[in-house]
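Researcher: For the annotation table, I need structure tokens for Glycosyltransferase family 4 protein. Please keep the output clean. Sequence:
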Amino acid sequence: MTRMRIVLEATSLLGRRTGVGQYTGHLLDELPAALGRAGVAADVAVTTWTARGGALHDLPAGVRQVGPRVPARALRTAWTRTDRPHVETLVGRCDVMHGTNFVSPPTRRAREVVTVHDLTYEEHRSTVSADSLAYRTLVVRALRRGAHVVTPSRAVADAVRDFYDLPDEQVTPTPLGVDPQWFTPPAPAPAGRLDLPDDYVLFVGSLDPRKNLPRLVEAFERVRAGRRDAPALVLAGPAGRDETLRARPGVHLTGWLDDADLRRVVAGARALALPSIDEGFGLPALEALASGRPVLAADIPALREVSGPYATYVDPHDTDAVAEGLERVLQADDGPTDRQARRAHAARWTWGACADATVAVYMRTD
């Protein structure tokens, strides 16, 4: 039997993992089992695009890192203008090349698959970097070559089809999952180590403008001004390192948290707030629900899809609406039955299902 060779771009696994890194890492972890379930004999490899190099550690058994040290910016600049270099020049023969972070490199014969996480680079251009704006060209060039698009949610799949006028069969949602560890109550951190207030609403995310943090902080201050018992606002993730926010009354920064500490902080929150202007999926909301916590979410398609009836929804463009939503989520029912219902909803989303859907795309012949 001829074995397939599948290569995934995994630069996002270098350093601390953001949302794309979490997606790529979990997909890689689940691929061997998903390929087995599909009855597919395949060799899986990963490549990174960085001049600094950097070995990837803790790859699944049998997964190899391949390819030379090549600066990502140089490759992307070349690929915005030409279909050279082919990816086979960098990683050798392959049957499927999966660009996990918007960029699908041109191939000689391999099937191109590209993950488009959202359309921020088109719909919110003023909020993204020059590197991200290059996706406007790179994605179009890949689509013209016939690349198959996978997305983290059905909401993004619909948006991509509409924006690029693509046929249904060229776009496949492969919804993300939640790590099973989120469903197990974490052990408390040693007293005082995380220096958290007793009562707090939590934000987990970056300082990306689409995350809408300034409006959340302003809405929080309005709530705090109106009630003496208002909880604190704790910022985690990249936003938890922004010292400019430390001086705001009632705002606490965690710094960067490892996975175990993040689960502790989420589990201890009164609620999680995610008032983003745009999201491709909204993994922090799903992880909070898996922890049994109430969620305040922006009323946008991806968060509606992921959180279902288990979130308090607000207009993310209206500070008054966000403040009112905070008041409502602080009063949300939070007994054992409510927490179990949130966990049961979150349990429907698994990384195994994400990998199964992705393997089905790899195996398509159209």
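Researcher: And a one-line annotation?
Model: The longest strand covers residues 4-9.
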